[in-house]
Amino acid sequence: MDIKFKEKIIKLFRNDARFWDTEKEELNQTLLKDAVDKFGEKVIETLLADSEAKKQFFVKVKDAYIFKPNDFKFFLDENKLDNSYTQLANKIGLATEEISSEKVVLNWPFKDCVLEGGMTKEDAMDVYFKYDTKIGEWKEEKAKRKEIFFNEVLARDEIDRLEEPKTFYKWKRFTEKNYQKGEDVKEIKRDKDGNIKENLVIKGNNLLALYSLKEQFEGKIKLIYIDPPYNTGSDSFSYNDNFNHSSWLTFMKNRLQVARNLLADDGLIFVQIGHNEQAYLRVLMDEVFSRARFVNEITWKKYSGVKNQASKKLTTQQETIFLYSKTENYSINMVYNELSEKYVKDEYKYIDENGRRYAKLRGRGYQGGGKGTKIKYLDENLGSPITTLWDEDFLQISTSSSEKIADFVGQKPESLLKRIIELTTNPGDVVLDYHAGTGTTCAVAHKIGRQWIGVEQLDYSENNPEERMRGVIAGDKNGISKGVNWKGGGDFIYIQLAKWNEEAKEKIAEVKSYDELTKLFANLYEKYFLNYNVKAKDFKENDIKSEEFKKISLSEQKKMVARMLDLNQMYINFSERKDKKYNLLKDDIALSEEFYDKK
């Protein structure tokens, strides 16, 4: 195919905002191929409008032109429309990442999973200066950081030490008496059988945290609930071009496979999802847990009424919650729909001499009294057993004013998690949420007497799960607190996966200029682990100084440098905890050894 035809195809789609990346000045071939797979009308119309493209990618049958999608996709693959970034990346040994089920996706370019540049409230903000024409001075401004998304994908045959247990550091225990600043962790509580009896908030990559938990919690988790990224494409956070539907499935599979091993034989897992990936998730969970382990598909009606009615679509009001078991040896606790206050007030309006509320019954209805009238006491009415449709009965409870989470931005109401946890666990059982978000699962589990573990890698500033849990043990009044008479109490341990190359990646994210990046790379080259198949020395001495590198955007420069990091070395392996180059504190090493019971 000649270069002129290649340029023509680029020109044809340049004015389509769906496929043209204005920042990179290139065609997004991944999105274009996805549109071709769906036989997008505009793609076909665009190609049909050009005589040369029509001849190349269509076959005429009588008076109709039939699109040949495979020919067009083959053209895109054979004529990579590479920009300067891709050319330079290939030169130094950074091959384009193809996503398949055999690869491990470490990070996901979505708000629920992407790692922030820092872990503190201040790190979540960018500081910049803006000239104020009214006062004639420069003023300091702050804005929420626009995060940079890095591809982090490993082929199975490249994984050598990724799944090893990691070292934990920055240990802190929060108690009712010391819930603000916390205190040093002196010991890790265990029961008589040696099982860890601590509530845990773990900060770090959730896939690697799951592998680390496997050491002590394999076969011991009674309930896993997760509310993962929905892959809707409509979030305010940017998507990485190389991540699509297939990588979402890989991302989910990587974690579900480990999660299954953590479940007890009578354990259960709930996965909540929107309509976009609902059907595919069901098939994936059939694969990981087996079709025989499917228990229920629950429909949760999130809200009443119509919101943002689309012109060509019906409004979606529900989300799906899949329930699977580890084995056939599980049980479900009977849970009833709670009676509404209005129903109780209207029907159970009588009070006997002992102060018990009751209703007067006649057959299937109610009446005001008379001979033969039967009565039913309120305390005898447990409500109706729940079904797989969680709609108005539950909605009335979950969205009441007492259910608001005050300073937290958690999407899921506490009463939703209360129902799930009470349905499948008993006091003392262990509950895990490895997409902890703002900590709703942890908060509810704590208030109703379950042991819990929450894993989160994103920094939500004031809405971090550890902040949420500090308020819980102090006796917050949010969510289900009133209904369960929550007064506070208990404790939890906060820990982080000890960073290494992850620390380097955060430093890259904080860089503000090309000069800063060149200085930083010199440090990365000497101190951190770079990918063995990358020509790092040539890059350091030549490519980073080249005009070719300078002319690409800073975000792409940072992305390229970050991709040079060895993904097997993002966190410090437990086996290397005593290596002096990591400068780990003795207390962190000792507590990690106690956690893994390997002093």
Radius of gyration: 28 Å
Can you say what the CATH homologous superfamily of the largest domain is?
A: Vaccinia Virus protein VP39
Give me the CATH architecture of the largest domain, please.
Answer: 3-Layer(aba) Sandwich
Summed up, the helix count is: 20
Could you name the CATH class of the largest domain? Alpha Beta
How would you describe this protein?
It is globular, with a radius of gyration of 28 Å. Mean pLDDT is 83; it is low at 110-124, 145-149, 234-242, 365-369 and 395-409. The protein folds into four domains: 3-81, no CATH class; 103-150 and 500-570, no CATH class; 165-335 and 387-497, Vaccinia Virus protein VP39 (Rossmann fold); 341-380, no CATH class. The strands form six sheets. A ten-stranded mixed β-sheet has the order 9-22-10-21-20-11-12-14-13-19, sandwiched between helices. Strands 15, 16, 17 and 18 form a four-stranded antiparallel β-sheet that branches. The chain is of the alpha/beta class and 599 residues long. Helix 7 runs parallel beside helix 8, helix 8 (245-262) packs parallel to helix 9 (278-289) and helix 15 packs antiparallel against helix 19 (554-563).
Primary descriptors:
599 residues, alpha/beta, Rossmann fold, 4 domains
Brief rundown of the structure:
This protein is α/β, with parallel strands linked by helices. It has 20 helices and 22 strands.
Could you outline the blueprint of secondary structure elements for this entry?
Layout: H1 3-14, E1 20-21, E2 26-27, H2 29-37, H3 41-48, H4 51-57, E3 58-61, E4 64-67, H5 69-78, H6 84-91, E5 103-105, E6 125-132, E7 137-144, E8 153-155, E9 168-175, E10 200-203, H7 206-217, E11 221-226, H8 245-262, E12 263-273, H9 278-289, E13 294-301, E14 318-325, H10 341-347, E15 350-351, E16 357-362, E17 365-366, E18 374-377, E19 389-390, H11 392-398, H12 414-424, E20 430-433, H13 440-447, E21 451-456, H14 465-473, E22 491-497, H15 501-510, H16 514-527, H17 536-541, H18 547-550, H19 554-563, H20 586-595
Parallel strand pairs: 10-21, 10-22, 11-12, 11-20, 13-19, 20-21
Antiparallel strand pairs: 1-2, 3-4, 5-8, 6-7, 9-22, 12-14, 13-14, 15-16, 16-17, 16-18
